[in-house]
Every structure is written in structure tokens, then in C-alpha cells.
Design brief:
about 350 residues; alpha/beta; Quinone Oxidoreductase, Chain A, domain 1; Rossmann fold; seven-stranded mixed sheet; six-stranded parallel sheet; 11 helices; 15 strands; about 30% helix; binds zinc ion
């Protein structure tokens, strides 16, 4: 088959022949229809993700049609539409036993330590293939396991947002636009901060109060909107080299005992907090990574019922991966860039 194989860190993946994947008795073979592009893919091609070994095929936001099922697979059939939960937990450790696969210490991920979906076909354990109604476009289904489920995990399992709380989403990109929608669904008052009018109006369209941080610094605006109280929860979805400065502003938006969710990150970018502020503010600062299989099932159901809209900014043919990576690097859009086969 053909795939976007990453052979070295001196250039983007290239579309070439690779061996056809073979499946085990509990696996499925998925014919890839759509694969989302994530900031992690930039880190991978830049050689910053040490767990990746070359050559391999990236792509961890995958949706497609089941092409073949293993002998022991039940509940899935060829032709079913699926999206793939990326983390392949060992199934035996304490976190896996209670469904916290993102805490598993030996969990390879589809598109990181295993071949991913920038390909014609991908192999996945059947357990990771979440069936999705065929009424949901596969380009939308592709972004659910990461861009949407990561925010779902951050807001539900970790931040435990309650109805009536104030949630500030900083950065309305591929993750932030979904954090806005989910916080809204959870009954929160949602404030969305960014520097681009297009992103702010998209967030407003999903019920957020927009803040343009070019006009005035984030803490001052959140302070004004909350009459000096601050936010219950701040969700940082920026990442990249700007993340240290953004986090410095984000903590200043927190209410007493507020929660800061660090979702975006960059290697070598520290989080600096004045310790007296941390103690007197009784802040809860939390890192949150990816999601559980349950999060993916939950967001699939929300999309099937029409209550959540996966936001795809553009679709690009799979062979256009390298230009799409540059777009993501230079000017990340609101919503996801999705590659199609
Ligand atoms: Zn990702
Ligand atoms: Zn495990």
C-alpha cells in the first residue's frame, strides 16, 4: 500500500510504498478516509518525540471504514465507519483495569509508536475502533479521538467543570474551539481568548464571550468580566514557544482555589509561578494528556446526537501533507486540517 512514511528528520514524510499491514485475531484493518493533523505531528517530524522510531507512518487522528476483521472480533463488520482511539493500553496495569489508559506506562499509540493513519490502511486493535454512525462525515469523525477527546478529558475527568462555573479557554485553535463547545455543553459560562478576530468570532458562534488579548492583557479582561472574582477554570490550548507567557497570564485569571488546565505545551518551555501566589490563591495546576477510550465514546455520542460540531478548517489530499504541516506551523487555523484519501 501507499503511505506517508517518515524515514528521517531532515524533511516531511513522503508518499511511498510500504508493506501492507497484517492483522491479528483481535485487530481490524481500517481503510483510511480521513486523518487529522495535530501540533504533535510537527513535533514528530522535527524529531522532538523520543518514543518514535523511524521509519514509520505518523497520523493519530484517524477515521475510515473497516476493511477486514480478525477471527475473534465481534461487534464490528466490514464497511462500518470507525474512528480510532490512539492509545493501545496494556490492559493489565492498574490504570488500564479502571479505564485510565492514558496513565498506562507501556501503551504504544497509533501514529506515534505504532504505524498511523497517513496511509491507505491502518491496523488497530478492535477495542480501539469506535463505531460511529455513517451520518457523521468521516472528516469530522477523524478529529474526535484527539482534538475533541483531549478537551473532553481535561474538562470532565480532570477539571470536573460544574454548571454555572466560569471557564476561560485560551487559544481558539484545533483544541480550543472544541473546549469552548464542551464547556458550554457542561453549563459553564465560557470566555474565549485569542488574538485573531476569525477565531474569536468562531468561539462566539459557539456561545463564548470573546476576548481579544491584543486589546488588553488577559488577566485584566477576565477580571473585568468576572467583577474581580476571576475564573473557576482556565484551559490553556496554545502550546508552542508562546506557552510560557500565556501560562503566566493564565494563572493570574484564576479565582481563589481555581484550576489551571495545561493542555498545550512545548519542549523546553517552563511554567513559572510565584509560589506565594500559588499558596495564597490555593490554585490547582494540572497537566492533562490525551484521553481515555471512554472520552472518545462520549464525544462520538455527542456528535451523533448533533450536540457537538467537530470543526474542520480545511481538507487536503494526503499527498499534500508537507504543505499542510507548514500551514499548521506558520498559521494554525481555527479547527483542524484534515487529510483525505
Ligand atoms: Zn495530537
Ligand atoms: Zn496498562
Amino acid at each position: 500500500m501507499k503511505a506517508m512514511a517518515l524515514d528521517a528528520y531532515d524533511g516531511p514524510p513522503t508518499w511511498r510504498d510500504v508493506p501492507d499491514p497484517t492483522i491479528g485475531p483481535r485487530d481490524v484493518l481500517v481503510k483510511v478516509k480521513a486523518a487529522g493533523l495535530c501540533a504533535s505531528d510537527l513535533k514528530i517530524v522535527d524529531g522532538l518525540v523520543p518514543s518514535v522510531s523511524l521509519p514509520y507512518v505518523p497520523g493519530h487522528e484517524v477515521a475510515g471504514e473497516v476493511a477486514e476483521i480478525g477471527a475473534e472480533v465481534t461487534g464490528l463488520a466490514p464497511g462500518d465507519h470507525v474512528t480510532l482511539y490512539m492509545t493501545v493500553g496494556c490492559g493489565l496495569c492498574d490504570p488500564c483495569r479502571v479505564g485510565r489508559e492514558n496513565l498506562c506506562l507501556s501503551a504504544p499509540r497509533i501514529g506515534f509508536e505504532m504505524d498511523g493513519g497517513f496511509a491507505e490502511y491502518v491496523r488497530a486493535p478492535a477495542r480501539n475502533a469506535v463505531k460511529i454512525d455513517s451520518s457523521v462525515p468521516l472528516i469530522q469523525a477523524a478529529v474526535l479521538p484527539d482534538a475533541v477527546a483531549t478537551c473532553h478529558h481535561a474538562l470532565t475527568w480532570k477539571a470536573k467543570v460544574r454548571a454555572g462555573e466560569t471557564v476561560v479557554v485560551v487559544g481558539v485553535g484545533g483544541l480550543g474551539i472544541h473546549a469552548v463547545q464542551l464547556a458550554n455543553l457542561m453549563g459553564a459560562r465560557v470566555i474565549a481568548a485569542d488574538v485573531e478576530p476569525e477565531k474569536l468570532s468562531a468561539a462566539e458562534g459557539f456561545g463564548a464571550e470573546p476576548i481579544d488579548v491584543r486589546v488588553e492583557a488577559l488577566p485584566a479582561q477576565v477580571n473585568a468580566l468576572t467583577h474581580g472574582a476571576g475564573a473557576d477554570v482556565v484551559v490553556e490550548c496554545v502550546g508552542g514557544s508562546a506557552v510560557t507567557g500565556v501560562l503566566g497570564d493564565a494563572v493570574k485569571c484564576l479565582k481563589l482555589n481555581g484550576r489551571l488546565m495545561v493542555v498545550g505545551y512545548a519542549y523546553g518551555a517552563p511554567l513559572t509561578v510565584e509560589t506565594s501566589d500559588l499558596i495564597y490563591g490555593q490554585w490547582n495546576i494540572m497537566g492533562t494528556r490525551a484521553s481515555t477510550l471512554q472520552d472518545v465514546v462520549d464525544v462520538v455520542r455527542l456528535v451523533e446526537s448533533g450536540r457537538l460540531t467537530p470543526v474542520v478548517s480545511e481538507t487536503v489530499a494526503m499527498e499534500g501533507l508537507s504543505e499542510a504541516l507548514e500551514t499548521l506551523r506558520r498559521n494554525p487555523p481555527v479547527g483542524r486540517i484534515v487529510l483525505t484519501t
